[in-house]
Design goal:
This protein has helices at about 10-20, 25-40, 50-60, 60-70, 70-85, 90-120, 125-135, 140-150, 170-195, 205-250, 275-280, 290-295, 315-325, 325-335. The chain is an all-alpha fold. The chain has one domain. The chain is globular, with a radius of gyration of 20 Å.
Length: about 350
């Protein structure tokens, strides 16, 4: 039942958008002020489940239903926000607050959940994951993350791995452009391997482009220019939040290059882990990222803590705030990076 708290962000955001004014910033304050404060007070939980509990959690469909519920929640939040911005003459500061709040929903309950669903094996779950990526203009993430990031993480070939002493803003440029270009490169290779034409129904990148454009055109048609701007900029907020998480997840960590030129296999040491309870819940255990990369097919409800994994001193929400201030981030994190990885 604890994962119901993952819906707290969209609930707070929608309440704030409904009341308007400075309340429209509620989600921002909730996610990046209140939760970090609470995480500094609450104990860290490093416990893992025994084999019987793991089996029970895997058989419990409630955990899967919780993920799928994010689809109507995310799109409901989008429609409500579009309704508000087109029906009322809102001041600029409120529109900014609404955009940020909606963007936080798209990041936490959209892309983050899409990431989990993208690792699932059923077509239905994968499709739901793709649908959740559309509002953040990041459908290409589905291809690059699964076929690129997990293969090249913590190596120079991965645009989603932040280098030692690289600041967040430089990383945003690297990863946003690099991930998109890499997705096209991967798709081109997949087409070549399977002898597909560019217009093939299986050329995901082609159809993703059509779908993304159709999404924005539809919003413009029904909600006008203001609605279009809200959709564009809230989506940007959403994918920048994702990339901020990517930044803190692998910052400064490197896989050893072997004599053969290949890199060592991904293991528990190549992702930053956090056991801070609230961040774990609202991000569906994404913060146990070391285990996710170690065994990427594991469902979120059974991800484990590993003693070998580098541990973040703060939860993911707090770490994201720190990353916005590079001198603070470097002061906290650089000394924690293993010497052999610098």
């Amino acid at each position: 039942m604890k994962y119901l708290f993952a819906f707290s962000i969209p609930i707070v955001a929608m309440i704030g958008i409904y009341f308007g004014g400075f309340w429209s910033y509620s989600a921002l304050l909730f996610a990046f002020v209140l939760i970090p404060i609470l995480e500094s007070i609450l104990p860290i939980d490093t416990n893992n489940y025994d084999s019987d509990t793991v089996a029970n959690r895997l058989n419990n469909k409630f955990f899967d239903i919780l993920l799928i519920l994010n689809v109507p929640i995310v799109y409901g939040g989008i429609l409500f926000s579009l309704y508000r911005i087109t029906k009322y003459e809102l001041p600029i500061y409120e529109i900014i607050g609404m955009t940020l709040s909606l963007g936080i929903i798209l990041g936490a309950n959209g892309i983050n959940v899409a990431h989990e669903l993208g690792h699932r094996t059923t077509i239905f779950e994968k499709v739901m994951g793709k649908i959740l990526l559309i509002p953040s203009h990041y459908t290409h993430f589905f291809i690059e993350h699964n076929h690129g990031h997990h293969l090249h993480v913590s190596t120079p070939a991965d645009p989603s791995t932040a280098r030692y002493n690289q600041n967040l803003y430089s990383f945003w440029i690297q990863t946003v452009t690099g991930t998109y270009l890499k997705a096209w490169q991967i798709q081109k290779n997949l087409n070549k391997i399977d002898d597909r034409s560019f217009l093939s129904i299986k050329n995901d990148m082609f159809w993703f482009t059509i779908i993304q454009a159709s999404y924005l055109i539809t919003i413009y048609y029904f909600f006008g220019f203001k609605g279009l701007l809200l959709a564009i900029f809230s989506g940007i907020v959403g994918f920048l939040l994702l990339e901020t998480i990517n930044y803190i997840e692998h910052y400064g960590l490197k896989r050893k290059q072997l004599a053969s030129g290949r890199f060592e296999r991904v293991n528990e040491k190549h992702s930053w882990n956090s056991n801070h309870v609230l961040g774990r819940i609202i991000l569906y255990e994404l913060t146990r990222h070391s285990d996710h990369h170690y065994k990427s097919q594991k469902k979120y409800q059974i991800l484990e803590y590993h003693d070998l994994s580098p541990q973040m001193p703060y939860g993911y929400p707090t770490s994201m705030v720190l990353s916005f201030f590079p001198p603070l981030w470097f002061a906290v994190m650089n000394k924690r990076i293993p010497v052999n990885m610098k």
